Fold this sequence. Notes:
Blueprint: E1 6-15, E2 18-23, E3 35-47, E4 50-56, E5 64-67, H1 78-81, H2 87-93, E6 101-107, H3 108-124, E7 128-134, H4 143-156, E8 165-169, H5 171-183, E9 190-194, H6 197-201, E10 208-213, E11 216-223, E12 228-231, H7 241-258, H8 260-276, H9 290-306, H10 326-332, H11 339-356, H12 362-374, H13 386-398, E13 403-409, E14 415-421, H14 432-435, H15 438-442
Parallel strand pairs: 5-12, 6-7, 6-8, 8-9, 9-12
Antiparallel strand pairs: 1-2, 1-3, 3-4, 10-11, 13-14
Amino acid sequence: MPQKCRQTDFQLVRVKSTWCRIKKGEDLSDCEDKITLSEAKIGECISEGGISWTIEAPIYFCYKVVETYNILDPSNTTLLWGHITDPQQLELATSGKRKLRRFIVIDEVVDELYGSKVREYFEENNVQHKILALPTTEETKSMDLVLNILQEVQKFSIDRRTEPIIAIGGGVCLDIVGLAASLYRRRTPYIRVPTTLLSYVDASVGAKNGVNFLQCKNKLGGYTPPVASFLDRSFIQSIPRRHISNGLGEILKMALMKHKGLFDLLKSHGKYLLDTKFQSYSGCADHRDAALQTTRIAIETMLEELAPNLWEDDLDRLVDFGHLISPELEMRVLPSLMHGEAVNIDMAFMTYVAHARGLITAEEKEQIIQCMRGLELPVWHGGCSWALIKKALMERLKHSGGQLRMPLPTGLGVAGSAARDSGEPPGAGVWGQRASRHSDVLEHVPRSSAVVHF
């Protein structure tokens, strides 16, 4: 039987340099010293068995996502000062009293393309720097690479408060560096500079970081946002067409979940965006700078979903659309599928599930699949077997509070989250009578297409 407890709630205040607790609601008007009131609270419970304390300590993060252009132009100081939000800190940093130092991790392919410009940038700005070029791929995304980075960071001996680590590369590079920075001296600030479309609209705007472990995608990681992400679309012009399509998979996710206008943009301008590699050109009135509109809407909708739920306390997340089957599929067939391609295959399958459940019409289903094809995204892969699907869903079930939470489209640009209890068999509940059988959904998912990658 639970023991009776005498509960007292305390506020925390700082008087001069010392924190102390006072009973909640206690009057502080008589205090002559300057006081600071914390949002943290301590609850004290005294019972016959002893005493216990309950601590509520809100964690505050502030980070910037900044559009910029020609970030490697030595006259553009974004990489030097763009992460600083406090005016006094900015004045101190730009005063020249302290020599600038930066540790940069860059993907080795990006280094081949832009390494000379990166070096010139820091040399022109008289910044002492160390550039570490690494192979950052899904196959190398491991703790070994994180430890490699940390060893070099230790040799460089950065100031963890004033010298943020800079990551320049795709999503894998940003994830690895983010984890390394979060571990070094428990949290060292870092900056993300995405160089692919996928990382521009996805990895660069959230808080998550991580590495693969035991053949499982992002099994190790945490939630530590960068101090800033600097977005420069000029990097995207140097990546292959397939990588553009890969990034469009994550943009389409946000369009299907919550923004029909973005879906219409992708339908109307998808080929143009692929052909121009998301660069803006004057004189293209018919497209009204589709690249700028598309990336801005994708980022804004993503931030709307991430900011209120940065630590994923709420597991009903629209941004998980396309991420139920895809992690298992992507790791199983490496390097056959890129991340956005695996996500799109997942979304295509779930589009058929949504239609089977009566959530979308046949016409809406066909519009979605045709849009995927127009963006040159695969809608199926031979490795996506029923056994893999069941394993992926059961894996998700284990980590979703006993319910298989599945964001599904309920129209074009609108969505809801369906949940299946852990007590139901994999074919029941959310799948419905038609979708519960492998053949009912999988036999109708298009396999043959010029854009399907096997």
